[in-house]
Task: structure prediction
Amino acid sequence: MSILHPRRLTRQVTLGDDRVGYVRIGGGLPNRDGTPTTPAPVSVQTMTTGYTYDIDKCVAEINRLTAAGADVVRVAVPEKKDTDALKQIIPQVRVPIVADVHFHFQRALEAVEAGVHKIRLNPGNINDRAQVIDVIQACKARKLPIRVGVNEGSIIERKDKQRRLKELGEFFSNNRRGYLLAIMITKLEEYLDIFYEQDFHDIVISAKSMDAVTVLEAYSEISKRFDHPLHLGVTHAGPKETGCIRSVVALGSLLANGVGDTIRISYASDAVYEVEDGLEMLYSLALRERKGAELIACPTCGRIQVDLISLVQDVRKMLASDIRLPIKVAVMGCIVNGPGEAEGADVAVFAGDRRGIIYVQGERVANVPEEEILTKLLDECKKFQARVESGEVKLGEKKVEIIPPDPIGELGSGWEAIAEKKRGGKPGTAQLTVGQS
Ligand code: SF4
Result:
């Protein structure tokens, strides 16, 4: 039995069209019209970083994000020239597009006219009841879902000075996180009432913060109070290096507890990383079926005798561009602990003294110098992929069993070989039992 909590059941929304395809978000509960739904795979979203009005660049960025595996791409539409551009952008892309609307409800109406597949509204800056109703009606007429995103950064009142003073006063005088959660939920309830009054239920909710603990608390609370699907995210998470940790801590914990239907990781970086890391998180939690190779690599240690860190980076890029099947590939620095750690890999390389021995499902296929490892490994991965596609072999069919005659002696790796080398002896002549370290 999985240690992961079963997915929380929600209503379901669908976005897309016949040309770009459809993405379902959430599910498990029947929709309002009684249509039964089944939970959709957790989807990965991202957002473009360039100007939407710069049409060619925007199309190129969306296509790059789609190629990286994004299920949905959001674009900013701060000005009319951005919503005008959408009319030309949407026919050139192959993924559902969401218009991210702040401050100007007209941008939402224009984006709907331009053919977007979903609208994101922020109750913190579009809260005029009549304007919200206009957007709801426009989306309803086109069967478009709306995400209501109550971000920490914009939830405290800005326009009404008296109300702002009161909200800020409460924020500073009380438990800040508790107050923030209270105001997020209260404003969400007030806002959603407008939607319900209009009999509009194609809603996704988000409640992002830059603080991972606030994200955990906010989504946990919201998941108990609403049955709409949830869009998870840590907003303004920072550069990839730290943003990754914050996002994985918050989103990974929620997902492991069954909460969350679509995710967006936010980095101050190329948005392709957001997609790659989001997918890897879902693969790691077994919430999505892996597409492309899975790379296992050792962290290296004092036994290493090749430039493994560069090799791993090169292998990662090579697998991303050339391997489409979920082949498990292990890159190990030595034969000492490698076999156990690479158990289950379809293709594995074990490095030694400036050499690498390559195995395919337990069968030793090559012993090459360091400079040839990358090419030979790619060659073997491609050959293996072709054999899987032809039905000759299956992924994960055989375990790696690296017990060839005297592998250590041949690679010149292992403690004894290293020690002998340090003593000035000839490397590659020592014997060592696999697994000893
Ligand atoms: S023991 Fe070998 S496989 Fe393990 S970290 Fe060190 S070099 Fe890598």
